[in-house]
TrEMBL record:
Any one Gene Ontology molecular-function term assigned to this protein's record: DNA-binding transcription factor activity
InterPro entries: AraC_XylS_family_regulators, Homeodomain-like_sf, HTH_AraC, HTH_AraC-typ_CS, PAS, PAS-like_dom_sf, PAS_4, Tscrpt_reg_AraC-type_HTH
Descriptive protein name: HTH-type transcriptional regulator CdhR
Gene from which this protein is expressed: cdhR
Domain HTH araC/xylS-type span(s) in chain numbering: 150-248
Domain of life assignment: Bacteria
Entry keywords, A to Z: DNA-binding, Transcription, Transcription regulation
A Pfam family: HTH_18
Cell cycle as UniProt keyword: no
């Protein structure tokens, strides 16, 4: 049985009628802020929406179908998603809301929250995965943001102190941890921890693109305790090392 047939049998309704995964891709074709995909047990694209194709600089879905992430996107930005696929397919453990940087359209990059779920057949065997990467672009009216939160955000972005944690933010805003989490989810569609990581990495990417500061100096300025901690966090978020990102950006 070929991979596509296995997936068609795996994606079923309650009445056990097969649903073509291509219909799911068509459903997401008008969601320009989200890349949708279905992959087989080898990590190859079975179905994608138009947004995924366009954001990687390809023209047609047929240019992508049958390929792996590493084959449609060069370097670590393609390799890391393929490694994620292998881990989900091997372990059956879902990847949920992974904050990472991806191409929007080369050379433009955007922050995404990526989710990947394993797909199983009737016997429970993993036959592929389904997922999406949604751009972090939530819009909120200015008056919905408390002044205390805006002040804390400004202080953090100006200093990027390593002491800043979700607890620091909650205390600075005079908000409970639950209220802070609700606020960051509504404003940024991120948890407090994800938001803090995003601000640090955003600042680092700007410094890598626009200055000649060393990686160690940038790590210090962005609130990381050392070069190694910065490199680990940067790779986790962007799929590449700071030095590789600088070369790519330039």
């Amino acid at each position: 049985m070929n991979p596509r047939t296995k997936l068609l049998k795996a994606v079923t309704s309650e009445s056990n009628r097969s649903v073509d995964v291509g219909l799911l891709a068509e459903l997401f074709d008008n969601t320009t802020d989200m890349a949708f995909f279905v992959k087989d047990a080898e990590g190859r694209y079975i179905a994608v929406n138009d947004s995924l194709v366009q954001r990687h600089g390809w023209r047609e879905k047929s240019d992508v179908i049958g390929k792996r992430s590493s084959e449609i996107c060069e370097g670590d930005l393609g390799r890391i998603p393929s490694q994620q696929d292998q881990r989900v397919l091997r372990t059956g453990k879902a990847l949920l809301n992974q904050l990472e940087m991806q191409w929007y359209r080369p050379p433009v990059m955007t922050w995404c929250l990526t989710t990947k779920l394993p797909m199983r057949d009737a016997e429970g065997t993993i036959v592929g995965l389904i997922g999406f990467s949604k751009d972090v672009r939530t819009q909120v009216e200015p008056e919905e943001i408390p002044a205390s939160f805006a002040d804390a955000l400004a202080e953090f972005e100006q200093d990027l102190s390593p002491e800043v944690t979700p607890v620091w933010f909650a205390e600075k805003c005079q908000l409970s941890a639950r209220r802070l989490a609700t606020l960051t989810k509504k404003v940024f569609d991120l948890t407090p921890g994800q938001f803090i990581a995003k601000v640090r990495i955003d600042a680092a990417t700007r410094l890598l693109r626009e200055t000649n500061l060393s990686v160690s100096e940038i790590a210090h300025q962005c609130g990381f305790y050392d070069h190694s901690a910065f490199t680990r966090a940067f790779r986790k978020a962007t799929g590449t090392t700071p030095r590789s990102f600088r070369q790519l950006a330039r």
